Amino acid sequence: MKTKKKTIGNNDIFTPEKRSAIMAAVRSKNTAFEKKVFAALRKKGLRFKTNYAKVTGKPDIVLIAKKKAVFLDSDFWHGWRFSLWRDKLTSDFWKNKIEQNRKRDKKVTATLRKQGWQVLRIWEHQIKKEPSVAILKIEKFIKSV
User: Fold this and answer.
1) In this predicted model, which residue has the larger pLDDT, 57 or 77?
2) Integer Cα distance of 125 and 128 in angstroms
């Protein structure tokens, strides 16, 4: 017997418990696109730390001696062109979550720059659409003085 999916609150088809389990499984570091970037950069002979907690914002790629930080931002979680799709979200929770992520990203970038760090942010779609261009941009950033 097939059960029909029910809409639970805010148009979610899952129970709050199931949604919580799904969201808990979402990785915040070492995602597939991050691993591809790390591998491509290491293949070019570059050495760096990943997800380094001792630097504000825990950048995805860190060169401590050069004070360089690279963030690989996912399009959804970091809200690429958020104003264009914000109203499509049916839950205020997700709207607020993404808005807070965007505010935190701006604050982290500003804080690092005030501390003398150079910061580069690359969007997930840039890596997926033209990986070689994104990798080259990161490589040039890392190698620059």
Assistant:
1) 57
2) 5
pLDDT at 6: 41
77 and 34 in contact (C-beta within 8 Å)?
A: no
The average pLDDT across 88-112 equals 90
Query: What residue ranges do the domains of the chain occupy?
Result: 27-143
Task: Burial-class residue 5 by CB neighbours within 10 Å (0-12, 13-18, 19+).
Answer: exposed
Domain covering 27-143, topology = Endonuclease; Chain A (3.40.960)
Per residue, the 3-state secondary structure of the chain, as one string, reads CCCCCCCECCCECCCHHHHHHHHHCCCCCCCHHHHHHHHHHHHCCCCCEECCCCCCCCCCEEECCCCEEEEEECCCCCCCCHHHHHHHCCCHHHHHHHHHHHHHHHHHHHHHHHCCCEEEEEEHHHHHHCHHHHHHHHHHHHHCC
Q: Could you tell me if 85 and 102 are in contact, meaning their C-beta atoms sit under 8 angstroms apart?
A: no
Q: What global pTM score does this model have?
A: 0.79
